[in-house]
Hints:
By secondary structure, the protein is mainly beta. The chain has strands at about 10-15, 20-25, 30-35, 45-50, 55-60, 65-70, 75-80, 95-100, 105-110, 115-120, 125-130, 135-140, 160-165, 170-175.
Amino acid sequence: MATTALPRHVVLNVPKAGTNTYIYREDDGSVVDGNNDMFSEFVKIEIERSKTDNIRVHLRFTYNNRYWQKDADDDSIVAVSTKPEEDTTKPSCTLFEPSQQSDALYFTHVQTGWRVMLNNSTQEFYVDQNSVGAPLEFVDWDTLVKLPKHVAFKGDNGAYLKAYDVDYNYLQFGSDDPNSVLSGHQPITE
């Protein structure tokens, strides 16, 4: 898959039945799955193209400018480097190669040639020589819209939609106060 298909900023998650958690960096540098807030600054990742090969990318958490890489001491994925490293002979190489199969996105660590995996018990990411990789999903951060907790709707008569409880429940554009409890409506996105 060409990197042009990946947006500049993403939120990554591992698709699991019934849960929506997102990838973030822990204080010790570990790259893990488990943040529940898609809008959190901790889950925003910038996809930076390699200067030497447009198929390869660097993955950088934007809130602390830390790049993904393989840990020098083991096979875990950490985000500790403050600058990209394109030299594939160095253990601190921050290059990854994305690939897409069906609806799943996979990353291969370029320096080792191994796919990125998720440890299901610790929720930490690592690279594994004999693995097919952890299937990931991504959302384009720049397309996310966070709705307010309550909204008011104004009708063409200039009045706001209000809930009434007189004899029976109904809605009517009959309020002049958009901040009234009865004029506030909660958006549901699921």
